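Lab notes, practical 5.
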Amino acid sequence: MLTTHRFLFLILIFLFTTSYFLEKIRHSPNPRQNIYILDTENQTLAQQSSERFGYRQWKPLEQIHPQLVQALLNQEDHRFYGHLGIDPFAIGRALWVNLKSLRLVQGASTLTQQYSKMLLENYLGHRVSRNLFWKMMESFLAFDCELHYTKQEILERYLNNAYLGHRLYGVEAASKAYFGKPNLLLNDEEIKTLARHFKRPEAVQEIKEKPSLNNASPHLLAWLKNKAQIQAAQPDADLVFQSTLNKDLQKKASEIVQEGVQELQKSDPQIQAALVVIDVQSSSLQALVGSANFFESREGAQVNHALALRQPGSTLKPFTYFLAFEHGRFPSDLVVDAPYHFYQLEDVAYSPRNFDRRYHGVLTLREALANSFNIPAVLTLEEMGTSYYLDLLHEFGFRSLDESPAHYGLALTLGSGSVTLLELSNAYAALARGGEFRELIIDARSSTLSFQRGRDDKGDYESGPKKQAAFLVTSILSDSEARRLAFGDADLMNIEEKKVAIKTGTSHDSRDAWAMGYSPRYVVGVWVGHTDNSPMPGFTGAQAAVPLWHQIMQFLEEGKEAQYFNRPANLVQKAICEDEVCQKVGLEWLPQNQENLSAKAPHESLRFIRPTDGAHYLFDLHKKKEDQKILCELKIPEAIQKKYKGTETKITWMLDGEFLRQSKMSENKFFLSLNPGTHELKAFVGEEKARRVRMKVSEIER
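Output from the prediction step:
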């Protein structure tokens, strides 16, 4: 009795172990799985087939020629629909024939057993020997497959995985290679010939069409693989991802980048480029070119520069002015472009210079941004505050800017941080939409994409501060007259009879050249540089990147009806006076209910000199708090001093939302002792208030 129990126990262990391994074998990854990236019209953008494991093109059973299926069954397993993976009649017949011949003449493997052998060899990674043990394993696995798959599924898997010579797997790949056409177009004679390959895969057959990989977007393929976004419809099928890209546009973008880089490499052989196109309304990726000549051995050819962290130069300036316009500034406000020294960390001076090494005196904010002057941008950022600016950039999707405000300092507006072309392009798409950020979409099946495509974006935008700020920035970036001082006519920054906005950028030492621009329909971002981040002497965004930007934007807008950027309903063009008697008049966008006004300069405003916004102070843990203080100093412009002269108006200081102290106008600085943490400081003089500053205090052991 005990022996019987042990025997049953061993049988159960055997069955459980066998079932476990059969399950693993059936679901083992197929090394011959192709990866396909499709565009929105189901055209193949990119395909990856393993050179080591050959070529295969998966086709559902209903897309395989019925006569070919029948020819295979007649040849390999005519009782396919009448057995459970093992055919006893075939085994008996083979045994009799082989015994009569005294040698192995005929096999008895069913089609299901042949498929099981494929699974075994795939799982093991090598061919299996023709012996009793492996035949038993094939039989077990064949029976298991019959239990888990329908006959149609087994047929489909076999027809797509069978080896048919010349490193070709499956009937579709073989049909195209041997006969130069899909399997559904094969004639009777070709079907017979192909069926014979199941018996003798290495039979001599001329290759008419070498299997090729369609790789219009190789960088996208690699990116999506890393993001694990590609999935198979079933375990053994090919991996397919339907992207939002447009194949014709992707091809054109690749050609433009390749030709543009070839021209630039005549002067600098190391140059590479990347290009991104995004649909404004849906925020969907339309084209992505990570480099020129992906399949060449040239350095950087396989690097996806659209995802590489690079310094953006002046392309972040529009967001500085966006912040200013969001908080009550207007393009007509004045700023003085002159030498300045900014004290960010106590006595450490930061003295920015313009790209042309000149100073341009009093400018409007429109002129300052349009001509990309550095000093006005830094002055504007100082007024707005680095920490608030960094918050805004995060709102626009710049996740790469993950350091503290103090790390970047005021140079952030000039590109001291590092971002990707993809981030930058999607942020510009938000500007084109009126300041509304949306996550980039690359999956054509995304429900978010369907929602956004169905949005009604016609008519006037709502008159919120973000919509207003975005429109004012766009009106400047699309103003070819305003940028004439720095760029001249710059024909390539315009698209004939179309309204487009554009901003160029050149990083420190000309390591990166940028052109970022948009129409109401599309955003185009272009980067040019060296893969190793070395300088490109003599190259700027206007010279290197703008020609590529112009070509693709021209292609995108050609033949389309002219569109204009949506204007918030509350903005109208009004006369702006240089002074109270209107000696000089210009037109600028202003709120409808606001009187015509004289332009004002940011530095006529009440502002903090110290601490700077985003400052981080490190206190010694072992020293008394009273001995470690922060200097707080307020700049009170002469106009404000005159306004309140002879009155009892005082400076009111607020810390973390609570009253701190009051002081006379002449007592505009004091020392402040703070506990560790993040703090916010405000100051008021009568009706005037300074832009608040945020600072952080930490204790360390020195």
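Observations recorded by the TA: The radius of gyration is 35 Å. The CA atoms of residues 290 and 575 lie 46 Å apart.
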